Amino acid sequence: MSVETKVISREINDLMWQQGATLSTAESCTAGNVAAAITSVPGSSQFYKGGVVGYSNEVKINLLHVNPETLETYGAVSEETIVEMIKGVMNSLKTDYAVATSGIAGPGGGTPEKPVGTIWIAAGNADKIITQKLEGDEGRELNVSRATHSVLQLLYDLLVTKGKNKEE
Length: 168
Description:
Blueprint: H1 3-19, E1 23-27, H2 33-39, E2 48-53, H3 57-62, H4 68-74, H5 79-93, E3 97-103, E4 119-125, E5 129-134, H6 140-167
């Protein structure tokens, strides 16, 4: 885990504590790395409820409540799927916030439309879901590391925005 990822995990920990909020994760291509980064910080058990590593479409459908038609129409690596993963894990684990990742980490599995390194990430709550598409193949390990750090950055940005809204 990079130093930057450790730092942002600590900042997320502080914000979650301040807001008294809960968090869950829905991970595909990062395979639990986001959960590991969050839980590497002492005190995370007070807000992190758990996560689902949904590598297969079957798990995305049955545990994360992604609509089979969404997967058929847009694919597992899509903005539409990642939004449904966020909503599904928040509903299943009854959390205030969630993050989700789905992508093609490599080295294989890419297509001309969705080459290796294409990864969709999202962070959300009941009011707002922020999505981002990552592109570019830096090798499997770096693709996963980049997605992990980037989704934590999205969550941090969402938490900071929510905190500012409460103060105004």
